[in-house]
Amino acid sequence: MAARRNNSPVALPFSDGPVEPDGTIQPDGTIQPDGTIQLGGPVPPGGPVETSPQCSAKGCRAAAVWQLRWNNPKLHEPDRRKTWLACDEHRVSLGNFLDLRGFLREVTPFGTASDAPIS
Predict the structure, then answer these.
(1) Per-residue model confidence as pLDDT tens digits over 14-51
(2) What ranges does the record give for the region Disordered, renumbered to this chain (predicted)?
């Protein structure tokens, strides 16, 4: 990291805040002594926050109800499956997106995070 003449904070394109003189980037992470960036900041009191699986549709944070299993035959072996999760509202639109490209293989109910390797 280059030294700054006046030690003033510097805004970085990947950060929502400035780099502090001690190397801390707020709120996204910390610059380590070796120059790498540790993202995520400190673990909140009480440990990491658990989140439930969410719909894969852009901007949707609804709980996952469906798993759409797919593969791209130009890139993946025939038995390889990738998984998108969907809420009830986005099951059809995500399925149509994959089906129009010939990628959709199956749609099944989603029960728990262990039901599908999300990729």
Answers:
(1) 444 455 556 554 445 555 666 665 565 566 666 666 67
(2) 1-55
